[in-house]
Amino acid sequence: MTVAAGRDDGIPGLLRASARSLTERWVELTAAPLRGRVSRAELERELGELFEAFLAAVETGSRDVDDEAYAEVRALLSELSKRRARAGFTPTETATGVFSLKRAVFEVIEGDEGAGIAELVVVSQLLDALGLWTFESYSKAREEVIDEQAAQLLELTTPVVKLWDGVLAVPLVGTLDSGRTQVVMEKLLESLVSTGAEHAIIDITGVLAVDTQVAQYLLKTATAARLMGAECTISGIRPHIAQTIVELGIEFGDITTKASLADALLHALRRSGVDVVRGRTGR
Fold first, then answer.
1. For the whole prediction, is pTM greater than 0.70?
2. Residue 260, SS3?
3. Do residues 14 and 106 lie in contact, with contact meaning Cβ atoms separated by under 8 Å?
4. What's the rounded mean pLDDT across residues 20-30?
5. Averaged over 27-46, what is the pLDDT?
6. Are the C-beta atoms of residues 87 and 58 closer than 8 Å to each other?
7. Rounded to whole angstroms, how far apart are CA atoms 93 and 111?
8. In this predicted structure, what is the pLDDT of residue 134?
9. How far, CA to CA in Å, does 18 sit from each of 7, 127, 186, 250?
10. Computed over its alpha carbons, how large is the radius of gyration of the chain?
């Protein structure tokens, strides 16, 4: 982002001469909307570093915030945006920090008889460009946070549990999509490697619906488990899901399916050579 050049010989001198008062005023203006969620000491450190980097860039004579001269400023603003995004601040609260410097600078420059319109225009355009850059950096950082949270949620909602020695299960609940079924495959295969289990059960009792793509992923997971020497059983296929699978023309072939997780566990135990005797209830 390039800004128009003006009679800017006096800008670095004005900023350097007023550095202390400018940063103090900047901290005051920035602290107000944050309402104590960032300590004054932290603001003084952050904004002090930013001001020094900004002043050094201005002293080069560059008026393009995309130039190498502003690399340190952009890096500091990027880190600031990430911290604010992770702490739950809004994009407006984050970008306001830059625009507050604009107000502080104006208060100083407007009171200087040697400063003219050209100086005000140059500083205004530079800080506007940096404010917009900060807003964009915040948006990218927020998207990264959302992606990380989504990945963590997938991890939490896709547990691999040990039901018995050599028997693992992945109980699934809710809606399955291609992304989640991919996580199921990866986690199950990793667990088979780490535990050496010979039986795996994918229980879809709590799954609301299964489409062609999800069914294909389940089949691929079962096939991949078999290639690793483990038998994979799919359990909990509800009547309406079974009907959907038939209508879609999807065939599970020789992959074992069971009506319930209990039936799948019983099958796995018997395949492991464990004698299971059903207990009697009542008299």
1. no
2. coil
3. no
4. 91
5. 90
6. no
7. 28
8. 92
9. 19, 17, 58, 74
10. 31
